[in-house]
Design a protein that fits this description.
heterodimer, A: about 300 residues, MetI-like fold, B: about 425 residues, alpha/beta, 6-stranded mixed sheet, 3-stranded antiparallel sheet, about 15% strand
Chain lengths: ~300, ~425
């Protein structure tokens, strides 16, 4: 865009009308952004230094005590590990699966559109609804998974009541729900790869693996970087499904940092403590987002 | 463009003026309630009041339990807060009072004294001032399925003592029947066991003592209550998968006859019927009730009861009509319908005569004969400490925490409060 240089007079005109547009349209957006984004972030940072129940006057200044309690809290440690597990599963299971499906379904084969729809469908579903559906699926008394297991001769399975399995169930549902979205990203990426490259490679006698390794993967790299970016941020912000699927249980073993914030900050009327969690989360998210963009997505901005 | 904006602004102003003048005649009283059992009856009370009071319009709104707890702090800080709010008394109410969002209605105390039983009303007094009115009472007690009891071949009279109770659990399990149904995923159902053990061991001043002494929550009754809970859980009396079962599905399991007994609120009786697979559950005449067993050497009596004293608070800035409506709301006349339907036990004097359902009447009798009615611990101690009590109860029962660790966690939560 930038190097398709427009003639100077037109450009000047564009700039002038542009600044007028900015003058009219920027203040409302900037005000909203300040009031609803910048101020709350600042307030959370402020509240984090108080022992505050969200109701009374803000007067019990405790310094870094909320942060000390937080860093000593075993449930928070577990929540942090759980967040890392989501990232690990997203990168190690979900992305390869999405990529494989994308390569299989990118060509206009018979039924590929139907399969794409089928795999994408869970992504459209609200997280809360997905959690409720799977809560029923995993139910030991009435749920189908346990029923099938019993039909095969096993004892009833209480997956969500078992500390060793409950979070595994959450991770499974995450992969089920989100791989379709990443698959769609890859399919879009695949379609932008020049078909001539494949033809040329085929003529040169490249094996399917070589074509994948040297044409598909490099061609997809911007999409892969984007997909990893979404996975990272999505993992850090993961919340809704925890509430409806496990409620953080059993024995607070399946919290993520955000559900920890909700249950231990808001639910217990410890807004100061919750704000401290929020600040940590914000720092983590901002670091990951900007760090990732700087390191890996730099070349895409220009 | 500017002309168009002027037209819109003008129209908006006309509308605003019109709606303001419409409201000037009517005083609106907004009551925010948690949608529990009494729904149609409360709306009816408001409708009756509106019909006889010209110029006052009472609106009853509902919110789901957890959502209500999470949103109320924000709602109260708004100028547009509801005039009457639902309350469980205890620590949350005290925080709301300290923050100055609740009206002191001591001036009307005499009027409420005449209609409300003194014990529940006193739950709404803080430092000698009255801030609200109790409306409904509930009791936590052993609710059992008579058919399964007969199948297990146990005698309910045995459950009067702790050892007898444990014996019943063992025998029941031996007969191939699940002794207890537990909604462990919601945690608070388990805190009923811990609370009752604490009450039976420590007696009426157990909480005040703990709150006013340094390290009071790590003293003997708290550790011992945890140890007894551990003893009970060691028998594995709960249904399989209890850690993952939420409260409402646990009602359904009882209604489906999957377990013999539950230590639950009286509302559980209707709940198990509604949430059973067949929508009928265990009929009233097949349900038996028993108090939580006595503990030898404990300071509490078997007639001490644990339960709710739910009621209503008037918020700051509410019109005087709100208090007037409250007086009507708790009158025997207004509470008659819900008492007759047996949806809850009203805190209003004289309503026990209206209760037809024999089970509800039995509970009402137990509450009025109660030697000490303790509010739910997770309400009384306030949300930050109360939820730790819930966590600790489940963790001890699951064998994940020792009674000493549990007591220490409650103490920590109290100190960090």
């Amino acid at each position: 865009m930038a190097d398709t240089a427009a003639p100077p007079p037109v450009k000047a005109n564009y700039v002038r009308s542009g600044s007028l547009t900015a003058l009219i349209f920027l203040p409302p957006a900037l005000t909203l952004f300040t009031v609803f984004v910048i101020l709350p972030i600042g307030e959370a940072g402020w509240y984090g230094f108080y022992n505050w129940n969200g109701l009374a006057a803000l007067e019990n200044f405790v310094g870094l005590q909320n942060y000390q309690q937080l860093l000593a809290n075993k449930t928070f440690h577990q929540a942090f590990i759980n967040n890392l597990l989501i990232i690990a599963v997203s990168l190690a299971v979900q992305l390869p699966l999405a990529l494989a499906m994308a390569v299989l379904l990118a060509d206009r084969l018979f039924g590929s559109v139907a399969f794409r729809m089928l795999f994408f469908l869970p992504y459209i579903l609200a997280d809360v609804a997905a959690g409720l559906i799977w809560r029923f699926m995993f139910d030991g008394d009435y749920g189908p998974i346990s029923q099938i297991w019993q039909a095969l001769g096993g004892a009833p399975l209480y997956i969500l009541a078992d500390r060793d399995w409950a979070y595994g169930a959450v991770l499974t549902v995450i992969v089920w729900k989100y791989f379709g979205f990443h698959m769609m990203l890859y399919i879009a990426g695949l379609q932008s790869i020049d078909r001539n490259l494949y033809e040329a490679a085929a003529i040169d006698g490249a094996s399917p693996w070589q074509r994948f390794r040297f044409i598909t993967l490099p061609g997809l790299s911007p999409m892969i970087k984007l997909s990893v970016f979404f996975s990272l941020l999505g993992s850090l912000q993961f919340f809704d499904m925890i509430v409806s699927l496990t409620g953080g249980g059993p024995l607070n073993s399946s919290h993520t940092m955000v559900s920890f914030l909700y249950y231990f900050g808001i639910g217990r009327m410890r807004v100061g403590f919750g704000s401290a969690v929020g600040v940590i989360l914000f720092i983590l998210c901002a670091t990951v987002a900007f760090g990732y963009k700087r390191l890996l997505m730099r070349d895409q901005d220009d | 463009m500017l002309g168009f904006l002027k037209t819109i602004a003008g129209a908006a102003m006309v509308l605003a003026v019109a709606s303001a003048s419409a409201h000037a005649e009517d005083v609106t009283v907004r009551m925010l309630h948690v949608n529990e059992t009494g729904d149609p009856y409360w709306k009816k009370i408001a409708a009756d009041y509106n019909a006889t009071h010209k110029g006052v319009k009472v609106i009853v709104d509902y919110m789901e339990n957890e959502a209500y707890k999470a949103k109320l702090p924000t709602l109260l800080q708004s100028e547009d807060r509801p005039d009457i709010i639902y309350s469980w008394a205890g620590g949350v109410m005290r925080a709301q009072i300290e923050a100055g969002y609740i009206q002191d209605i001591s001036a009307h105390k005499a009027a409420f004294d005449k209609v409300i039983y003194p014990a529940p009303l006193s739950a709404y007094e803080v430092d000698g001032k009255l801030y609200g009115v109790s409306v409904q009472l509930s009791e936590v007690l052993l609710i059992y399925n008579k058919g399964l009891l007969a199948k297990a071949g146990v005698d309910p009279a045995q459950m009067k003592t702790w050892d007898g109770f444990l014996d019943v659990l063992k025998k029941t399990k031996g007969a191939g029947v699940t002794p207890l149904i537990m909604g462990g995923a919601d945690k608070w159902p388990m805190h009923f066991f811990y609370s009752y053990l604490l009450m039976r061991l420590g007696g009426p001043d157990v909480l005040t003592k703990a709150e006013t002494t340094e390290g009071g929550f790590t003293t003997q009754p708290f550790v011992d209550a945890g140890a007894k809970l551990k003893e009970l859980a060691a028998l594995e009396p709960f249904q399989e998968g209890w850690l993952g079962t939420k409260y409402l599905p646990s009602q359904g399991q009882f209604g489906d006859g999957k377990g013999m007994m539950a230590l639950q609120l009286n509302g559980f009786i209707q709940g198990q019927q509604k949430n059973a697979t067949d929508g009928k559950g265990i009929p009233d005449d097949q349900i038996g009730l028993a108090p939580f067993p006595e503990l030898p050497g404990g300071k509490g009596k078997i007639t001490d009861t644990l339960g709710g004293v739910q009621g209503l608070l008037v918020t700051k800035g509410a019109p005087k009509e709100a208090i007037d409506f409250l007086k009507y709301f708790v009158s025997a006349e207004a509470q008659k319908a819900s008492a007759e339907a047996g949806v809850y036990v009203p805190a209003t004097k004289g309503t026990d005569a209206f209760i037809k359902n024999p089970l509800v009447a039995e509970i009402a009798r137990a509450i009025s004969n109660s030697t000490w009615h303790q509010n739910f611990l997770d309400q009384d101690l306030g949300p930050s400490v109360g939820r730790v009590v819930n966590d600790v109860s489940v963790a001890i029962a699951a064998g994940d925490m020792t009674p000493e660790e549990g007591a220490q966690q409650i103490q920590d939560a109290w100190d960090q409060r």
